[in-house]
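Friendly challenge for the regulars: who can give me the structure tokens for this chain first? No prize, just bragging rights.
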Amino acid sequence: MMQVTGKPRMPGMSGTKRVFFYAGMLAVLLSACSAAKPGTGRDATPHFFRTIGEASAIDVSDRGGRIVRQFGYNMRREQGPPAIEIETEWKLRRPYDDEARAGADNAQSRVIIRGRQRSTPGSLVLYNIEVNVENRLQVNGSSQWTFAPMTERFRLHADSIASELERELRNVTRR
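First reply, four minutes later:
Bragging rights claimed.
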């Protein structure tokens, strides 16, 4: 018959081994919890990505170019069908407050709008439109640009670009 006491026993483990076992399990648990910190305003990726809908090549080119210029970006290149890509130059900007608190001295971002052919109803070719906004920082006096995880403020900036383009393209398709 097995004797039941108030202390759990692990067969084959001395007290010291048990301490190290539990310490190791605690470390694994804490590292798993710290890998995802909801509400901290930081994402693991250095860029913002969102699919915003569909549009014709002409509408993406016209509206996309206008929206990125509206947000102060300069066009670097534009590629037309069969694959659409609008890419801006890197725009130097002051770091947002949350980036500065993380040690950023300088910041830059760029916008890439891509369209992949989706369907051809009749003679109109439509494209699925994706907006990607990338972010790089110079941190703690370094001259090297490094891709940095998104802060909440950068995410809001990138989201406003995507939302504005989405609104513009939605208005075009309703006409």
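The first strand starts at residue 47 and ends at 55. DSSP finds four helices and seven strands in the chain. Your move, everyone else.
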